[in-house]
Structure formats: C-alpha cells, structure tokens
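Q: Okay, next protein. This is Retrotransposon gag domain-containing protein from Cuscuta campestris. I've checked the sequence twice, so it should be correct. Can you predict the 3D structure?
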Amino acid sequence: MVNHVRGQGDTPPLIHHEAHRSVARKLRALEEKVEEKAGAKKHTLAKSPFSARVHAQRLRRKIKLDVEKFTGKEDPNVHLDTFHNAAQMDGCTDAEECLLFFSSLRGRPVEWFNGLPHGKIGSFEKLAEVFRKKYQDNYIKRKKFTYLNTVGQREKETLTQFLTRWRDEVDKVEEMDDKMAMSLLMNAFRSGDLYTEFCRRPPPSYQEAYNTAWEYAEAEVLNKNKRELEEGYTKSKSDKLKKDEQTGGSKLKATYDGSIHQIRDDKKGEQPKRQWTEKWCTYHQSDSHNTADCRNVKAVLKEMALKGELGEGYATDDCRRPEGGDTASQRKNWARSLHVAVSLESHGKQARREPITFTDRDLPRTEGDHNDPLVITMDINEADVARVLVDTGSSVNVLYLDAFKKLKLDRSKLRPLQTPLSGFTGASIEAEGQITLPVTLGSGNKIVTKQMRFVVVDIKCVHNAILGRPGINQVRAIISMAHLCMKFYTPNGIGEERGDQKNARSCYREAVKKMTRQFEQIELVSQQVDKGEEKARIEPDANTEEIQIDASNPERKVKIGADLQEELRTEIVQVLTRYKSLFAWSVADMPGIDRSVICHRLSVLEGSRPVRQKKRFLASDRRDFVKKEVKDLLECSHYLQ
C-alpha cells in the first residue's frame, strides 16, 4: 500500500466552475422556500385575533357542526346559543370553540372577524362578548307578556283564525311560565262551549289547553260544513251571488230578510189597498216584482250601509263617501229623504247588555266645573297617538298630515276625495286624500278594534287627529263632557277612554299663543303699510283730441294731447300712422302667444265624473254682450266649439 502525503508543493484538486454555480443556485432556492414558509406562517398569525393559548390547542379530529351560517342579519344571541350548544354536544373545548367559530360565519361577518385586533381574544366568552356588541342592533325585541291581554278573540272570528293569530303573537313576547300562559289563553277566548269547558275542567298545562282549543277548532269547521250541507246551498244561489258581484252589487255581509220604506215629503199617506198576489214590492207599492229582487231597494241598502246606518253586519268593502253625496243635488235629495229600515220578520230577543252609566267616580280629579275638551290617546295603526280630539261636531274623522308622516304611512295608499272640507266659518280646504286604518279603543281586555276612514288634511294644528261622528258611532260610544269620559261596549264588557286634561289645556294654550302671534304679525304689517310713503303718479292731460290714423277705417282713432306744439304733433301723428298695425282694434288682431313660449293645460283627475254647470240667467244687455264676445272668440279661433 502506498500512502500519498501532500506536501507544500502539492496543489488541491480543481472543482469544475459550472458545478459550483449549480450548487449555489440550489442553496439560494432552498433558502427562499424556507423564508417563504416562515413568512406565510407569520402572516397567518398576524391576522388571527386569538391569543397564543388558543392557538396552542390543536383540533383532535375533524369536527363539523350542523349550524346555520351567520350572515349579519340574524339575532346574535340565537346564533351564539345554537353554536355553543352544538359544540358542547360534540365535546369541544373552549379553545376548539374559538377556532371553529369562524366556520359559522359568511359574508360581511367574515370581514369583521378578519379585522379584529391580533391576540386579544383568549376565550369563547370574550369572543361572544365582542360578537354581541358588534351585532347588538339585530336583537329581536320581545314584548312584555302582558301584551297578550290585548290579543283577544275578535267578534265573528273563528277559532282557527284566532289560534293562528295567537300563535304568531306568542312568538313576539318574552318568556313566561306555564300558568301565566294558560291564564292569558283562557281569558282570550270568547264566551262559548270552549270557555265553558275550561271553566268546568281547567286544563293542567298550557300545552294541553292549546291542543284542546285546536280540537274544538277542527270540530267547529266540520260542524260548519255539515250545517251548510243540511241547509242546501244550491248552484243557482251561488250563481246569483256571483252575478250580483259582477254587476256592482253592494256586497252586503248579511242577507236581506226584510223590506225597506223610503218616506219622502211628497209621498205621505196610507198605503193603497190591493189584492193578494205572489209578487209585491213594498218600496214601489207594486205587484210587478218582489221587494227582495228590487234594484232600488238594493241601492238604498248599499247607501245606508255606506253611511253605517245598518250596523256592522251590513258593512261593505267600498270606501265611505261624505254625508249626502259629492254633489249639491245629491246632498239636497239626501236632506229631503228619510230612509227607514223595517223588518217584516220577528227577531229573537236581543242579549241584555250592561247599562252604560256615569257616576261621581268617573269625574276628573280637578275640583269644580271645567270647560276642557275631550282629548284622548288612542291606538291608530298599532301606534299610540296622543292629542286626539273627540268632536261630535265633525262629520268626518280627520288625520293631520304631520301625524300621517310620523305614522310612516305611504302617500300612495291615499284615495282621492272629491268633496272639500268646510268649517263653521265657511272656509273650505282640499283634502290630501282618505285612508282606512285600524283603530283600537279601551284598555286591558276591554278593547274594541274598528277599521275607520280618516280624511288627511295638510293643516298645522295643535291636535294630531279628530275622532268625529263616524268613528264615535262606529264604536257606539256615549260621551259625558262633565266626566271627560267616553264609554262603549266591548266583547268583554264596557270599555272607556278618559280625557287627558293636561294635554287638552296644553293644546288650548298653544292654539291661543298661535292666534296671538298671527294677530301681532297682521297688526305689525298694517302699521308698516300705514307709514308707507305715497309716490306721486302722473295723471293724463284733460285736454285731448281724437285723430284718425287709418284712412281705410275711419272709426280707428286715438287720442293725443290738444296743447302739443305743431311740429311735435305732426311727428307723433306720422309715427302713429306708420305703426297703426301694432294696435289691436279687435279680438282677431290678438293671435295670442306661441305655444313654444308658454302653454296652459288643465289637469283633470283620471276617472272623474263630469259635472253639468247650473244654468245662469243674465240680463238682456249682458246676454247680448256675452253672445258678441263668444262669437268674436270663435271667429278668431281662440276657442274651439
């Protein structure tokens, strides 16, 4: 074996230059990959809002929670409870819940999560606190459970309809115990077989009471179907109903079972004697048709129903018109006529009602007599509206435009009103329109809800609305001004609305202050006018003479001053003669203004009925002048006939 020992004179072995560069490139690429991975890890941790303790926890397995994604529109409490309970059922730890919470977000909440400060959240409780604070506006605001006292079964409302509405209203209130829920449900039912059964055998729980009520509701539907089959609704009757609806019938909600008499001033006296026939119309006193088939009777019934004279059973779908009609002739005919509804069939005894009385207990707390108006607070469209004046002198219910806007109602829902409103001073105003809104009166379980028509007017007033005769009669209210109280019947007894003296006197003070301010403004303006300086006016010269400026028409003359110098007079006459065509000697010389400059169009409401104007009688001289002017306007095509 030979050992080679390198000495000082020996040279090291040479490495190829290209191989050296290749190794260097590989080292640089490896370093870049290491730096890239380290940088990506650093970037990810910088975006995470969780602390190092949370990131130290590693998911033990692949976990997928069955939770709906939160998009930023849901209730944050509901989402947190759902997510937390699902994670607990899956055995997740606190740190795992933090790491999994991001997977339950979608949309804008993801951006909010990525924007959280780094390393500030160390537990799920802290994360939930930040989450609730961000989306606190999404909380579902629950009503007090006492709100269910107002959710009673309405008149003529079936059990099925009521229970469906009750279920929706219960979802809107806060949690309550079983006994309270059962008590509220029992009080909400109207008197009948179901209420009697609950009084005899009180259910042990709310759920059992609710299920029993649904059983009665199903039985009620089956019983109704059975009764209709037994009464025998034939096809001809249904066809007749459809025909009445197509011909614009009154759509009365009760069948006609009587006769109607119209007593006019010129038809007084006894009914004529007649022989018995199969057909007889009490309205026309004729045997050509029956009263039930009389078109005029149906029209009278419809008119009376629109005025509310037939009670709730004869309500119609059409909007109510002003008293007496929209035109002067209709109101005159209405004033001369008296409509009386007479039933030929004997009705059963009406149910006794508790009499409405006013005692000293109903008197206001202020001592002595008062002169305050009745101003109440009532529910209009599910909103408490204060400063509502109860006025028996108003023929309509009025809602002022400011209150209309505060109720956030849409102007597109306003229906046009043809008749203007007028006050006791004779001044009239045009209404913005009319709208039908739900109105609730009373308190506790003694409430009544009606659909009332309001006329919306744009007037600045200290009151928000006026409850007029239509609304008062609709709830059949009785008013005592001495007691400042209005009482009315409800399904659960006598309800009442008490006047608010503080609001009434506040309204009076504001009204008087407003009148005083207006009077001061008028007085101030009048004083300024009186102090004004009168400007001198140029009066025409009394000495004038007529000159002729058109030889072909000698009647065309103008007046100039008689004391003018001859040279000036000659110059003026020449100018007038030269420009004689500029004078309008007749209507034909006034062609009007070109339509490209200005044009007037008369706006007419679509669907309006034309009204024939009353004939006006003029004196002979005025009549001849009008005929001449109309003839001239027609000849020059100013008016088209």
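A: Here is a summary of the prediction. The longest strand covers residues 446-457. The two ends are 142 Å apart (CA to CA).
Q: Noted. On to the next one.
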